[in-house]
Structure formats: structure tokens, C-alpha cells
Design a protein that fits this description.
Length: 143
């Protein structure tokens, strides 16, 4: 049974555990060293900072072959990662309600408030010249 000692999620060991989990459970030490942190500089430093805490907790196993050292995640290590990911906050879903377009007839203020569109009769100044009001594409001409 693994020793249940908490490990900070931002530590090198826990990041190694997450990468192993995402990679299917088996990766070479050289790959993990290059992938995680450029300051490891050597496999010995990687084992001291990231590998040893994981080995002590029983979350990974180390296998030495002719091609190099490989790390395997254990069942306890998988459970730790799954529990960590379940506790992470999820992104909020976008609202699914679809709004209907507004009806322009509802917003005819000229009928309720006399003089509300008198500004259309006064020319504007653009670039030092007087320019008459021009109705947009959604407005009826002559209003």
C-alpha cells in the first residue's frame, strides 16, 4: 500500500505524475526530463527532485533497461491523479438560451414622445462640412 503523504500539485513530482498519466502510464526518464523542466540538467537531479518522492509514495515504479530508465505509474498513482482532476474546477458552460430578435415596432418612441426625432432635420458636421441625416438600412425611409 502506498504511503499517503500529500504532494503539492505544482511540484515537479506531481507534474511528472500528471504527464505519466496523460501519456498512458509509461515514459522514459529522458523524455520526462526534457518535457517538464529544463533545470533538471541530469537524470540524477530529476530522480532526486521528481522521481524519488514518487517512488517513496508508491505512485510510480522505475524500470531500468538497455535503452534507459522508464517510469511506470501504479494504480495508486492513477487514483491520485483522477482524484486531483475531479477536484479541479470546471469551466462554466455557456448559456443555452437563444434570444428572439427584438421587434422594432415595440420601440417606436416617436409615437409616444413628440419631437424625439427632430435631430434628423438638423445637418451634422463631418470634416467641416454639413451633412444631412441618412437613415440606416433597418429604418423605413421618410420617418
Amino acid at each position: 500500500m502506498a504511503k499517503i503523504t500529500p504532494m503539492a500539485p505544482d511540484s515537479a513530482g506531481f507534474q511528472t505524475l500528471l504527464r505519466l498519466y496523460d501519456a498512458g502510464g509509461k515514459r522514459s526518464v529522458e523524455f520526462l526530463t526534457a518535457e517538464l523542466w529544463s533545470d533538471f540538467r541530469s537524470p540524477a537531479r530529476f530522480h532526486k527532485i521528481a522521481g524519488q518522492p514518487l517512488l517513496e509514495r508508491g505512485w510510480v515504479k522505475l524500470q531500468s533497461t538497455q535503452r534507459g530508465d522508464f517510469m511506470h505509474i501504479t494504480a495508486e498513482g492513477r487514483l491520485i491523479v483522477q482524484r486531483h482532476r475531479l477536484n479541479m474546477p470546471t469551466t462554466a458552460a455557456a448559456p443555452s438560451s437563444i434570444f428572439k430578435p427584438l421587434k422594432a415596432a415595440v420601440f417606436r418612441y416617436e409615437e409616444r414622445r413628440p419631437g424625439s426625432h427632430d435631430y434628423r432635420k438638423m445637418p451634422s458636421v463631418m470634416g467641416g462640412e454639413r451633412v444631412p441625416y441618412h437613415a440606416g438600412p433597418d429604418e423605413a425611409p421618410g420617418k
